[in-house]
Amino acid sequence: MAAPSPPQSPAGPHQPPVAPPVPPWRRLVAVAAEGVASGTPYMVGSKLLQGWLAANAIPLPLIGLLPLAELPYTLKMFWAPALDRWALPWPDRRRGWILVFQLILVAVIGAMALLRPSTSAASLSAIGAAALVLALASASQDIVIDAYRTDLLPEAERGPGAATHNLGYRTAGLVISSGGFLLAGWLGWPAAFAATAVLMAATIPFTLTAPKLAPLSQPITSLRQAMAGPIREFLHRTGGGRALLVLLLVLLYRWPDGLLNAMAIPFLTITGFSAATIGLIQGAWGIGATIVGTILGGALLPRLGMNRSLWLFALVGAAGNLAYGLLAQFRGGVPALLLAAGLENIGGGMVGAVFVALLMSLCNPRFSATQYALLSGVYALSRSLLSSPAGVLAERTGWTNFFLISVLASLPAFLLMTRITPWNGRQALGAFDAAKDAT
Fold this sequence. Notes:
Elements: H1 24-55, H2 60-63, H3 71-75, H4 80-85, H5 95-112, H6 121-152, H7 158-187, H8 189-201, H9 204-209, H10 223-238, H11 240-252, H12 255-270, H13 275-304, H14 306-330, H15 333-361, H16 368-384, H17 390-397, H18 399-408, H19 411-420
C-alpha cells in the first residue's frame, strides 16, 4: 500500500513556509550577533576612521569628505532587489549573503591596519577606496541582516528581537568608540583596526550556527519580479490610499529625533558645557540610557501590542525633546542635563525598538530585503532632508522655541496613527499577515 502523502500546509501554496521550530533564545542570540556585525563596520567607517585621520594631521576639509563614502547606506535600496533575486543557497537564502559580506568586511578592516595615512595622493586614494568598499559591503550586509531578522522572527518576538538587535548594534558602538580609541592610544592605530577586524570575524560563527530559514514556496525567478514585485505586493496589501499614509508614518514617526540629534551638541556647546561633559553625556551616559530604553521597549512591546507601543513610546520620545526645551529655558547645570539627556536617550531606545518592529511587520518575507531597504530609505529622509532646516530654525527662533517646535513635530505622526495604528487596533494597517497573504 502506498505511503500517505504528507499533509499540506494550511497556509496554502502562497504562504512562506514556517522555519523549523527552534527555541526563542536561539533566534534572539542570532539577532544580537548580527546587530554587532551591523554596528561594527559602521563605527569603523565613521568614528574610528575619523580619529585615525585626525591623529595623523590629515586636513579637516579632507576628513570632512568622509560622509560621502556613506552614501551606500542611503542608496542601498537600488541593489537590494538583486539580493532578493539571487539568493545564495547555503547556509540559507539570507545567511549566504551575510557570510559573504562579513568575510569581505573582515578583509577590508584588516587591510586598513596596513595603511599609513599621509597627504599624498596615493595614500588618500587608498584610504578613500577602502572607506568606500567598507561602506558598500556594510550597507549590503545591512540589507540582508534586516531581511534575515524580518524573516526569522514571529510576530510575538519582533519587539524583543528589535531590542536585541539594537543592543548588539549599540554594544559594537560602545566597544569601538571607547575600546578602539583606548587601544589606539596604547598600542597604535593599526592595533585598533586589527582588533576591530577580530571583532567582526567573531560574528561569523554566529552566522553559521544561526537558525536556518525555510526556502520560500514561491521563489523569485527574475530581476524584474524582484524590482516590481515588492512595490506591487505592498500596494496590493495596504491599498493605494493607505500605502501613502503608511509611508508618511514611516517618514514622520522619528522626525522629532532627527531635529533633536541635529542640534543637541551645538546647543550644549553654545550654552557653555565643556567638551568633557558633552563627551560623557554623548558617550557612556547616553549609550547606557539608550540600552535601558531599548530593553524597556523590547519588554513592553509584546505586552502592549504594536499600536499602543507606537503611541506610548512616541510620547516618551517627545518628552525627551521637551526636557531639552526646559533645560534651555531654565538651565540648571549638569544635573539637569543628565536628566534631560537620560530621558531623551531612554525615549530614543524605546522609539527605536518599536520602529524596527514596525518596519519588520510591514515586510513580506518574499521581498523582505527590498521592502525593508525601501522603508528604511524613506525613514532616512526624515533624518537628513526633513531635519536639515534644524540649524536655521534654532538660529531664528532661539533654543527654547526650537525644542518646542521639535516636540510639535510629533503631531503629524500622532494624527496618522489615529488612522493607521488606532489605540485599540491589533496591529498596524498594512502589516504583513501570513494567514491572509495572496502573493
